[in-house]
């Protein structure tokens, strides 16, 4: 999800479409939050 967010963010910055930048930023933030927050009480950290 983080990689997809980065790709959409880069494409949105190259092409003049602000919706891709918005979707890319949201996916990037959600992916980082899901990656850093332990889910289900486990200490699973994947970077």
From TrEMBL:
The keyword Transmembrane applies. Keywords: Membrane, Transmembrane, Transmembrane helix. It comes from the Bacteria. The chain crosses the membrane at residues 6-37. This is Uncharacterized protein.
